[in-house]
Amino acid sequence: MKPFILIPLLMIFISSSSQAEKYDIESGKALVDKNCVACHGTELYTRSDRRVTSRSGLATQVQRCELALDLNWFDDDVENVAEHLNIQFYHFKK
Q1: Are 62 and 85 contacting, i.e. CB atoms less than 8 angstroms apart?
Q2: pLDDT for 64-78, tens place per residue?
């Protein structure tokens, strides 16, 4: 393969692999287990009358809880928690 063809293919690979690694699901789960489940268990995520209706709304709600509890999480932490909850309970499309 010629170098000028290889570089664009490499860029596509790097881009797609970084999307797959965008969230740290294990970190999100650990934060939920440590900070969220102690207050309300998992029933909040499985009830039929949920207030959260989208993935972005889920991230907003996670941030509200984080601020209310003064946890001082980074934005990545909020997104990791939201993605863990989305995969585990909500199943919103991105």
Answers
A1: yes
A2: 999 999 999 999 999
Give the Cα-Cα-Cα angle 68, 70, 74 (nearest 5 degrees).
110
CA end-to-end distance (rounded Å), the chain: 36
Specify burial of residue 88 (Cβ count, 10 A radius: 0-12, 13-18, 19+): middle
Q: How far apart are CA 32 and CA 23, in angstroms?
A: 14
Give the Cβ contact number of residue 13 at 10 Å.
Answer: 10
Q: How far apart are CA 32 and CA 22, in angstroms?
A: 18
Q: Are 35 and 69 in contact (CB under 8 A)?
A: yes
- What pTM does this model have? 0.76
Nearest to 78 by CA among 15, 18, 20, 36: 36
**What is the percent of the chain where pLDDT is above 90?**
63
